[in-house]
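Hey, can you fold this one?
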Amino acid sequence: MTYIFKKNDLCEDFCAMETKAAFLTEIKKIQIGKTKILEPHEDEIQVRVEFVGLCGSDIHFFEKGCIGNRHVTYPFILGHECAGVVTKTGKGVKDLAEGDLVALEPGIPCGKCEFCKEGRYNICPDIKFMATPPNDGALVQLINYPEYMAFKLPPNVSTLEGALVEPLAVGMHAARQGFVAPGKSVVILGAGCIGLSTLLACRNMGASKILVTDLFDMRLKKALELGADFVINTSKGDLAYDIRLITNGEGFDLVFETAGSNITATQTSYIVRRGGTIVMVGNITGDTAFNFRNLIINEITLKTVFRYRNIYPSAIEEIATERIDVKSIVTNIFKFKETQQAFEQSLYDKKNIVKAVVQI
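Sure. Predicted structure:
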């Protein structure tokens, strides 16, 4: 085993203890090593992480070492979709105790800027978000975290489900941004984890007709299992033409782009109904050709999604009451020592993997 100590962890505090972590040491290379963790601060809990979902952003950092202007400094710990059990509490912790199961909301906002004060903390310019450089992530056995961003799981919600609260929160935020309601027709471009989470949220909010598109049949099969009314494999035809046939030329009330693809982003204005809404959810980088003329002459509303805000409690409630079965998204669970394999398969075998989770 390679033992890696990040310079920030080499402290002189005698209370520090060793814990294992999965480090990204270079592009496409994960090594399990050791780091150090202090006693939790007064307002923190210490959590033994049990499950971490691999997000598309994690896989992008694994493959490219950057997203936009966010560049990894090696070694770096990925993973932000996480849940576990509380092992210690700081002296000021009031609502959580040792043994509690918790889901960690991975962004810690400043709490002082105008956006935080408005409740829109997801766009806080100084937010510290797990696994977004320079902030390490959750692929580690033990982590200290502020109590106010840790949410206790009910007895009937597992830590596996707790780790999936994060992508579900994205889907719920997207559905709310689009004002999904009974009678609305929805098309979701992309049947990855975020697309399927958006599907679950839209179905839960009463969407009357849901179409999901993707390049891979296995993902589309999963979409049907989770409540899609129709699916289209976009590698086998003309999406705009197919949608005109399905909707008698009208298009869909709501179009969600969840694939993070320049191609699907371009398609959105051709398949939305006159007076409808496009919600951009996927993490798209670079310039994208977009037909603004279509938006103008049809008076289309364009909404965007950046993570989520104020949703974790309601997402956990939807899981606890079994209105949303989020664990059905998971297709592969890897052991901690298989983290390298988990990333590789998620990157190279997308036709067979929808959602990979690492069990710590």
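The chain has two domains: 7-164+330-359, 171-304. Let me know if you want another pass with a different chain boundary.
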